[in-house]
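During the second year of the project, the team shifted from modelling isolated chains to modelling whole assemblies. The rationale, set out in the original proposal, was that interfaces cannot be judged from single-chain predictions alone. As a representative example for this report, we include one of the complexes processed in the last quarter. Its constituent sequences, exactly as entered into the pipeline, are reproduced here:
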Amino acid sequence: MQRSSTVEKIPSNVSAQRDALESARKTLGTIILGKDDQIALALSCLLARGHLLIEDLPGLGKTMLAQSLARTLGLSFRRIQFTSDLLPADIIGVSVFRQDRGEFEFQPGPVFSQLILADEVNRATPKAQSALLEAMEEFQVSVDGETRPLPTPFFVVATQNPGDQIGTFPLPESQLDRFLMRVAIGYPNEASERELIAGADRRSMIDEIESIAGPEMLLELQSSARKQAVSEPLIDYVQALVRFTRASADIETGLSPRGAQALVAAARARSFIENHSGVFPDDIQAVFPSVAGHRLKPAGSTRFRSPAELCQHVLDSVAIP
Amino acid sequence: MMRAQPRGTDGSLLSSLPWTLAALVVALAPHVPYLSFWISGAFVSCATWRYVIEQQRRMLPSRWVRGGLALLCFLGVFASYSSISGVGPGSALLAIMAALKLLETRKRRDQFVLLFISIFLVMSSLLREQYLWSLPYLVFGTLIIMTAWLRMSAVESESAKQSLRTGGRLLLYAAPLAIAMWVLFPRLATPFWSVPIDTSRAVTGLSDTMSPGDISSLSQSDEVAFRVRFDDQLPQPKDRYWRGLVMTSFNGRTWRGSEPRIAAPAGEQLEFAGQAYSYEITLEPTQQQWVIAMDMPMEWSLERTFMGPHQQLSHVTPIEQRVAYKVVSYPEYRVQTGLPRIFRRYYTELPDDSNRRTASLAREMRQTVANDKQYIDAVLAMFHNEEFFYTLRPPALGSNSVDAFLFDTRQGFCEHYASAFSVMMRAASIPSRIVLGYQGGEVNPLGGHLIVRQSDAHAWVEVWLEESGWRRVDPTAAVAPERIEYGARDAALDGIGISWGFSAPSRLLQNLTMTWDMLNTKWNDWILGYSPDKQKTFMEWLGMENPSWRKMLLTLVFTVIATILAISAFMMLRYRPAKKDQASILYKRFIRKTGVERYIGETEQEFAARVMAQCPLPPAAIQAVTDAYLDARYGAKVAGAVEKLRKAVAAIA
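Output from the structure prediction step:
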């Protein structure tokens, strides 16, 4: 739904932000076809300064999404393929002894990039996983007793393959919590798939993307998103949702206060992207499945078979105040 | 959502079922001591079964199983009670019905039936007993039932604690109404209906026979027999003889109170002297006809009560409810100075073939003294001087109980001494009879009244002498004078009674007992004893002139209306919607105008899309309202947003 009438006087820098956002969405939409919702969610996640976990089967465009995001927004991009022999140093970097200067020199690892694609994150050992997860949490890494800040913005897109059970180390709940959102991409619809098959090579299309915004613009967008108004009735609604997840017989562990904060942060970004005058219940509902899906622990007796169904049940049970 | 049609239960009652079960358990609990054990067992099994069915999504038992169980249980109740009417079988049937209803509970409607049953069960426990703690329990039970009711219709986000609080609040709102109804509803001298009394319940107390061991078994019971409130001063402990029934015939072991063969008006033979005591007795149900009064009653206010030939007060029917009556008594009296010969024979009758040793001892002793009076003193002196022991745990005696007691064991409680003394009197041709009643009593310092417990049960002897008529002689006083001076309980407290087998309660326990007793007395006086007279007095005290049932009913109606109005006003003030939610009110008006119902959790945008599809209203107008509402309610402070919304809503026809 297009809405533009509400905010009367738009300051010039805001209008620049809006233009940048619109064209970013459009560009992404030409590469990843028929996945506007997922693109909006990924952008929301980025704007809310959160990290994204994409859980889906191989070949559905996980890497494509991450790469095109990086290109569109003009961010430095590195991809880390997680394997069972991956070591923390492979992510963070190592100190190398320079004989000519007689001192150690730090060789930064791939983590020192603005956008990181951590591919198949559940294939690595918990030790390697935690190196990345710590960086995600702290926005800095400590090597040899020295704290090194990570570049800003810093955005991790991790993927994991839900089908793999053998030889994987599924992320524990506490670490799933580090990801603001978990989204699935899913199969494209028929028309999109047809275009994918017949159309131009996506990889070369990505190479041709001109970056629409730089890191500075992204930081501006992030700070604007944080300023989206949150009204009292909306907080009531969020609280009602959270309370419901804690009381429902279908859910063993409900949303934590941090989960509620994450929900509001994501909804703010989404509301900003949608150009709403404030955070609407609609924004909450749009991000709820991806924010809450991996944070809710369903009860053993629940009749809902997937996190998505469970989230929809929550949304269908709580009245909007 | 596509789902296969469930074969078993769908688990939708899982959240409310435990509360319904709790309500039933709470409602049933007061009945459990009176129900046959298999009924409670059946209930617990059915409840567990039903819960497991719900939890594991199993099938409910089939109609045939349920029908069979119902028939079986019905026959079981009939077999256990040999009746299906009355409080006992009635509550048993209710419990069974609740248990079986659980097995066909599929929907909310069935749960309503269960909660109705539990309300009925809670109420019917009052048919059995109305103790002080019945009221808090009733309130608690109602609270649980209300909460169960609320849980059934609660949205999932409502926690059990919230439901409990709502239930409590509803009860609180109802409390003034209940109090007004109770105070103002005209009392009737006789109740509308009478409930068949549950006679299956054992009553602790004196029975109408006395064998060795009967009273000593009572002495362990702390149960209150009656309470006495004296108008002026209390009599001395040695004068506190509470006359119950008089027993005249002896078969060698057991004394019985039998009807005399010749009826004689008894009251006219009484002469009173000295100090009069006037008091009110609140007698607990005894299931016996005799009525307690202090030795010797002159007047009593209890209706249909007569003094029989042995100076025994009897009511025409057994005392099945707590009764209160006023009595005037004189500890000094003379009775029946002229005893006809036929009565003298009757009061000296002994079975020929028993207690021979006692009889010969009596004759020997009588020959050594000059007159009957000296003989009495001699027997008392024998009890006092020889090795007789007063004890709560006397050894068992055979059929010649008096011989065994006097010559072998020499350990006994009051009934042994009274029996032995009376037999010795009769053996010496002195008319004698045994009076069974209570002696002493404990003053409750908090209420100022006297509590007489079953442990105060006592037996003493009355002998007839030519010059003075019937005279009370208490052989127990000769053996253990402290028992009479202090009473059983005080003697126990002072450590004297311990040697007899009374256990001494601690001081703290004693104080608690006294407080509890005082509360119970007030409860009996004011709540259970709220009679038409008391109601009238209370109404006059409240300022009502000439209270009549018309006036009370009218006041009641006004009070009820005023209370409801006050509560409604309070709720309206409290739950008035906040002013700032003008936007919300306007949007609700819009929803009403569209005539489309908004689903739970439906966003404004989704709703707008649905309205556009379902309503002939112009989509632009709907969009305008939706946008304006979202801006006004959720947006950043946008000036004039509410006004815009108002206009947009007004624009919709």
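The first strand of chain A starts at residue 51 and ends at 55. The radius of gyration of chain A is 20 Å.
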